[in-house]
Amino acid sequence: ANANSGAPTIFDKIIAKEIPSSIVYEDDKVLAFRDINPQAPVHVLVIPKFRDGLTELRKAELRHVEILGQLLHAAKIVAEIEGILDGFRVVINNGPAACQSVYHLHLHVLGGRQMKWPAG
Ligand code: 5GP
């Protein structure tokens, strides 16, 4: 398996910049860009550039611990950039029953409005 094993998704094209996205933050390991169908005034997706089998959190293994930490840290940086440090939500949908639609691990960073619990 190569570093991106798992079926290709639209996010591979976004990483390769073959399709455009509104990038909020990028470093060598992670990319953060605005969700095309925002559910809040701020709705940013944070993804690993190298999926390495990490199609979803439930597939995470010990070798993914470092990138998982980097993704969470990038979520905080995104919240800082977007000015929502006073209140924001980080969501990971896992599997069909949670409405995961893209099988390349991604964190949703949501904010800029009052969030409800557990959904909405
Ligand atoms: P999931 O439902 O898998 O947790 O979230 C996938 C998210 O990716 C959805 O919120 C959807 O709006 C977003 N998305 C799907 N395709 C694209 C795209 O081509 N560009 C961007 N920016 N977001 C996308």
Give a brief description:
The active site is at 106 (tele-amp-histidine intermediate). This protein is of the alpha+beta class and 120 residues long. The protein has two helices and five strands.
Query: Sheet with the most strands?
Result: 5 strands, antiparallel
| CATH superfamily annotation | HIT-like
**How many DSSP helices?**
2
Overall pLDDT: 95
| Ligands | guanosine-5'-monophosphate
Query: What's the overall geometry?
Result: globular
Structural class: alpha+beta
**β-sheet strand percentage:** 15-25%
Regarding quaternary structure, what we see is single chain
What is the rounded Rg? 14 Å
Low-confidence stretches: none
**Architecture, according to CATH?**
2-Layer Sandwich
Describe this protein with a few key phrases.
120 residues, alpha+beta, HIT family, subunit A, 5-stranded antiparallel beta sheet, binds guanosine-5'-monophosphate
Structure description:
This protein is of the alpha+beta class. It has a single domain, classed as HIT family, subunit A (2-Layer Sandwich). It has 2 helices and 5 strands, in the order H-E-E-E-H-E-E. The protein has helices at residues 10-15, 65-82; strands at 23-26, 30-34, 42-48, 88-91, 107-111. A hairpin with a 3-residue loop joins strand 1 and strand 2 (30-34). The chain starts with 9 loop residues before the first helix and ends in a 9-residue tail after the last strand. Bound molecules: guanosine-5'-monophosphate. Guanosine-5'-monophosphate (5GP) binds at residues 10, 21, 33-37, 45, 93, 99-102.
